[in-house]
Write a sequence for this structure.
């Protein structure tokens, strides 16, 4: 199941993402080295692998005997010089700090085998912000994974060779994953960019007093057939990580204007230790959150206005990605369905609603102050392009 060019994979950063990706690679037959500068983080890897392994079995990805064999292929390495020996592919998943990532990739470039491919799993930074520190620019790219889903964004930098992109695409396929090769880099890649727009709309609705948190989640779950709503999703991701994402200024004026209020809302939870699912409580209490109760969806009638706002945030962000030529509509839908497990992507929503209904809904949201006026023009322009 492995590809010819890759035998040993080094994962740098043994947090949740590095632990998950390392176990998936080991299950699929790769020799794995997992490095972290903090030995206490490496000490947590066996327990993390147990938890992730149980999830993989539950999802039908592997069997228990596969996990036993996989654990024998994983070596923990606290020393970076030792960790890089004889590796063919490196996946970095350290904290989202540009200086930290640049310094680390500079060291990896200097010490790793000359033919090794270097990748970053950054979710917030651009590959072009990091790649100039390495000499092997043709063998440097973003390989971005999604926790809980085998969707991988592949993004080349200014010097990345087609051969490197192809190697990473085949590596993802060998994992049983879905490779999404972007046409150009973009903040949040594809899924995160769309989901970020949905979460921002959800936060706006609550902050401006237009709906309660349960009402927002109820509307999304009922409209999309989703197992949880935006606030449940934020609990799943970790409210501390969501807060970190909102600490960075946005180019989008509407989202930037919302940022102080969002940070205050999230900080209130984080300061109380309510970080979400991993802490036993966030916007909901775990292990039995209210949104999993049978009566949750029927507690009150779902709000069509709230559902319209959330759905339109998804659709307009998808159109913006297609208009910017980040990815094709088919790939954008693929990113959404692969990451969420839902059966319909945003362009499927557009096809179902029809262009006129989509534009009418956006116009109503603009009148309500929930979307900037330019959204209607941009969406209408894209529809005009596709109808020619």
């Amino acid at each position: 199941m492995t590809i010819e060019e890759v035998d040993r994979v080094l994962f740098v950063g043994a947090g949740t993402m590095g632990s998950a990706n390392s176990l998936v690679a080991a299950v699929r037959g790769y020799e794995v080295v997992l490095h972290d500068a903090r030995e206490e983080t490496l000490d947590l890897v066996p327990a993390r692998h147990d938890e992730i392994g149980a999830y993989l079995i539950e999802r039908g990805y592997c069997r228990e005997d596969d996990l036993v064999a996989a654990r024998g292929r994983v070596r923990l390495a606290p020393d970076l010089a030792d960790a890089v020996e004889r590796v063919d592919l490196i996946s970095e998943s350290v904290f989202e700090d540009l200086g930290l990532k640049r310094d680390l990739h500079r060291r990896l470039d200097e010490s790793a085998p000359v033919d090794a491919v270097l990748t970053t799993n950054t979710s917030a930074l651009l590959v072009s912000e990091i790649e100039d520190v390495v000499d092997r620019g043709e063998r440097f790219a973003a390989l971005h994974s999604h926790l809980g889903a085998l969707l991988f964004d592949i993004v080349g930098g200014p010097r990345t060779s087609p051969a490197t992109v192809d190697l990473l695409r085949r590596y993802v396929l060998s994992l049983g994953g879905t490779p999404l090769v972007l046409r150009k880099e973009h903040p949040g890649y594809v899924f995160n960019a769309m989901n970020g727009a949905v979460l921002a709309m959800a936060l706006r609705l609550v902050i401006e007093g237009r709906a309660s948190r349960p009402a927002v989640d109820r509307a999304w779950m009922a409209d999309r057939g989703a197992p949880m709503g935006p606030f449940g999703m934020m609990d799943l991701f970790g409210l501390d990580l969501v807060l970190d994402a909102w600490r960075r200024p946005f180019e989008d004026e509407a989202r930037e204007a919302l940022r102080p209020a969002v940070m205050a809302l999230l900080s209130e939870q984080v300061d109380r230790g309510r970080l979400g699912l991993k802490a036993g409580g966030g916007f909901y209490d775990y292990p039995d959150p209210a949104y999993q109760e049978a009566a949750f969806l029927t507690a009150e009638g779902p709000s069509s206005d709230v559902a319209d706002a959330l759905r339109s945030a998804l659709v307009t962000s998808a159109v913006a990605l297609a208009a910017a030529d980040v990815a094709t509509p088919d790939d954008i839908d693929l990113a959404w369905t692969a990451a969420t497990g839902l059966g319909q992507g945003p362009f499927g929503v557009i096809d179902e609603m029809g262009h006129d209904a989509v534009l009418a809904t956006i116009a109503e949201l603009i009148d309500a102050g929930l979307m900037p006026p330019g959204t209607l023009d941009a969406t209408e322009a894209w529809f005009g392009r596709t109808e020619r």
